[in-house]
Amino acid sequence: MITSMASGYNLHMAEPRWDGLLSGDPGQAERGIDDWVEGMRSRADRLQALRDQVERIRVTETSVNGAVVVTVDSTGSPVDVRFTDRAASVRPDDLGPLFMNTLNAARARIAGEVRAATESQVGDDLPDTRRMVVDAYRDRFGDAPPPAPRTRRLDDDDFGDDSYLR
Q: 57-80: per-residue pLDDT in tens?
């Protein structure tokens, strides 16, 4: 933790402290102001990096039957929608709800991705900012746990990396 003893300002605090910043001799006050400005620049740089990282977030979710694949960006907007060959076996009346459920499942994972980005860019240095950003995404999209590993069905003809020859 970097602290300027002259000013009592801690560069890794959630909020800048003004008390003591301008007390003492003019040289100490100037160093205190410089430390404060550098701390604010550092925060601004990290928050800009966070913004950039959040804007690059993409979450992809696949429907439980594998017929629909939806990718959303950090705003929850679909950026890619794919219907696999399995979509041909879905009744047309069921395809819309299947798409919407998959879209909502992808959106529910956005808050977790934003939380991870915020922790990597901001860490524990700005807890109020971190909480505010994550809460805003959670309030908008909910917060889903990571998806459970998919289990293989007996009629699944996708052998993946598993060999069916023993």
A: 999 999 999 999 999 999 999 999
Helix (H, G, I), strand (E, B) or coil at 81: strand
pTM: 0.68
Beta-carbon contacts of residue 82 (< 8 Å; ≥ 6 apart): 68, 69, 70
d(CA 59, CA 45): 25
With tokens 């908008």, the residue in question is: 140
Alpha-carbon span 44 to 164, nearest angstrom: 55
Angle at 77 between CA 72 and CA 81, to 5 degrees: 55
Picking from 56, 101, 96, the residue whose alpha carbon sits closest to that of residue 79 is: 56
What is the spatial distance between Cα 159 and Cα 90, in angstroms, rounded to a whole number? Answer: 22
Q: Residue with structure tokens 């740089």? A: 45
Q: Looking at the DSSP assignment, which residues form a beta bridge with residue 58?
A: 73
Pair of tokens at residue 114:
């934003």
Between CA 137 and CA 112 the distance in angstroms is 9
Closest CA to 57 of 34, 75, 74, 38: 74
